[in-house]
Write a structure and sequence with these properties.
Length: 556
């Protein structure tokens, strides 16, 4: 993933088998699957990769326990299988996390229902190839040892179960890197603005390069719309009167310091409105989420609102045995929009949590294939189905059909296989020790970059100044700025601080304190003049203060 200008030159002169519009997890998965099957592929993303929904999730790779309640057994089964497979394919990036569901004295029926639900969850997860830990009943003492912040009165025990957690943006980048390694061309800040039709079929797109302001024209045999919540807008490019099918639902998360609500485990907290709130230790902070409400606002920039943040704090405080969490504990917040599909009658109510999370693949007007819905967790399966669908409809695309299902065995993170993963991670650890890097840094660079952690170590070996932390409280190093600019198409301060590393989503205040030195490093790598440097700092500051307005900003 480098040489943006060279890729643009190539894209302007060749015909691709497949053009993918959208660089979230769905588009990335499709580009990977297509390139692995031998198709020539171009993916265009109008903003940064994972700049929208795919960087704003709860970070879970999960079987979707709550889908059992809504009777979506098939979906929960599919998601559990994918979770277990992805843990094997990306062991550096997708890791087991245990959850406790506290059981309350007055809620005997709920306790019974939860036990039965988790037994079904275990059954759905049963897989000889990839064994998954079954749930377990805990006594009150075990619950409080794992989650010391919980209120002791009324808790009669808990149920421990396992799912997996990831870094969503890094997952998108890992899938895109895998696609690139198989020959796909991927370009960020490239917006599809017109779809060119020949013989009643989309045979090309006009794109606007948002960095240079120029337009390029790309030819293709087939085109996929993987634009998430923007998919109706892309469909309108081929049919003016396209009737919207998306029913966007907004989900907000808040982040508080781990010290504000100490827990050694994830928690699944039933709320009084019958929804569940996740509390997750993640990258040295605590994520609390999420809300789930019909959203009719600006799709480009959904912002957390005060009611949503208060709702999340209130939900946790019902279980909080320590100091109550309040607004000043919040160190970061963000909102994402779920690309849910409208179903008859669903737009009438505000609650969207009961809407299906299943995906749909369909051939729209002018042969434009559109893929919407789904989850981060089942991106690989959606991509596999999409490619099967495309190849059955576009016989002119000559693909290595034997490559069907190859992504089931293809590791992410640049590891060739399990053995390569074990030997390379040992090598990364030993080289890092010689450079006096601490274990938290080793863990961070390995989980973030996979085998490319070796390139970070090369940079530190060449220039010892690059082993300085970007901000003392979090592990990312200055060397990562160079790596991400040179190899991951990071072109703005926010690309780096929000999506290549996650400081902008973890701690607004510390992120802004570190921003000037990151901006200076990017200035020299990308030859920014001083005006550009100031504009980048201002843009980051505006973006963070919009997400967490001043009454919320924590001095912590
Ligand atoms: C709050 C929340 C929590 C969630 N938590 C989880 C979770 O824990 N686990 C899980 O499995 N799933 C979770 N999900 C669901 C999951 O995040 C989404 O299903 C998934 O990220 C959608 O990916 P996508 O690629 O379809 O959309 P996006 O990530 O939005 O990608 C679409 C991309 O298309 C680009 N685009 C649009 N128009 C154009 C154009 N004209 N030209 C070029 N590019 C264009 C956009 O810029 C965008 O980047 C969550 C969702 C939300 C909102």
């Amino acid at each position: 993933m480098k040489n943006r200008n060279r890729i643009i030159e190539l894209a302007s002169v060749r015909e691709y088998d497949l053009v993918v519009i959208g660089g979230g997890i769905v588009g990335a998965g499709i580009a990977q699957n297509a390139s692995v099957r031998g198709l020539s592929v171009l993916l265009v993303e109008k903003d940064d990769f994972s700049g929208h929904t795919s960087s704003k999730t709860t970070k879970l790779i999960h079987g979707g326990l709550r889908y059992l309640e809504t009777g979506q057994l098939r979906l929960a089964y599919q998601l559990s299988r994918e979770r277990d497979l992805l843990e094997q394919l990306a062991p550096h990036l997708i890791k087991d996390i245990s959850f406790i569901l506290p059981l309350i004295r007055q809620e005997a029926f709920f306790s019974l229902k939860a036990s039965v639900g988790l037994s079904v969850y275990d059954l759905l997860s049963f897989n000889i190839g990839h064994p998954h830990q079954s749930h377990k009943r805990l006594n009150p003492q075990e619950v409080f040892e794992a989650a010391p912040s919980l209120k002791q009165e009324n808790v009669t025990g808990g149920l421990r179960f396992h799912d997996a957690i990831t870094d969503d943006s890094r997952l998108v980048l890992a899938v895109l890197k895998s696609a690139s390694a198989h020959g796909a061309h991927v370009i960020n800040y490239m917006e599809a603005v017109t779809l060119n039709i020949e013989s009643n079929t989309v045979r090309g797109i006009e794109c606007r390069d948002r960095l240079s302001g120029t337009n390029i024209s790309v030819r293709c045999k087939a085109c996929v719309n993987a634009a998430g919540v923007f998919s109706d807008q892309v469909l309108r490019l081929v049919k003016d009167k396209w009737k919207p099918r998306m029913l966007p639902s907004k989900g907000t998360h808040v982040v508080v310091p781990l010290s504000a609500f100490p827990t050694n485990t994830g928690l699944l907290l039933p709320n009084t409105d019958k929804r569940y709130i996740f509390v997750l230790p993640w990258q040295r902070t605590l994520l609390i989420g999420t809300t789930d409400n019909l959203y009719r606002g600006n799709l480009e920039n959904p912002l957390p609102d005060a009611d949503e943040m208060d709702y999340l704090l209130h939900a946790v405080n019902q279980y909080n045995g320590g100091r109550r969490l309040n607004r000043s504990d919040i160190i970061s917040a963000w909102s994402g929009i779920r690309p849910l599909i409208n179903q008859p009658g669903s737009s009438k109510s505000n609650g969207t949590s009961k809407l299906s999370r299943e995906h749909q693949i369909c051939s729209g007007p002018k042969g434009l294939i559109t893929v919407v819905g789904g989850k981060l967790t089942n991106y690989r399966l959606m991509a596999e189905e999409t490619l099967n669908y495309i190849l059955s409809r576009f016989p002119q695309i000559d693909a290595a059909r034997g490559a069907v299902g190859r992504t089931r065995r293809l590791m992410l993170g640049g590891w060739l296989d399990k053995e390569d993963y074990l030997t390379s991670t040992a090598l990364i650890a030993s080289r890092a020790r010689k450079l006096s890097l601490d274990p938290a840094t080793v863990d961070h660079i390995t989980s973030t970059y996979g085998k490319d952690a070796l390139s970070i170590l090369d940079l530190v070996e060449q220039d010892a100044d690059l082993k300085e932390r970007i901000c003392p409280e979090f592990p990312p190093l200055m060397a990562e700025i160079t790596h991400c600019v040179q190899n991951e198409l990071a072109v703005s301060l926010e690309d780096f601080l929000a999506r290549r590393v996650r400081l902008a989503m973890l701690h607004h205040k510390l992120c802004m304190e570190a921003a000037p030195k990151v901006a200076l490093a990017m200035q020299s790598l990308l030859q920014w003049d001083n005006n550009r440097l100031d504009a980048e700092l201002q843009a980051l500051s505006n973006s963070l203060s919009e997400q967490l307005p001043s009454p919320f900003i924590s001095a912590k």
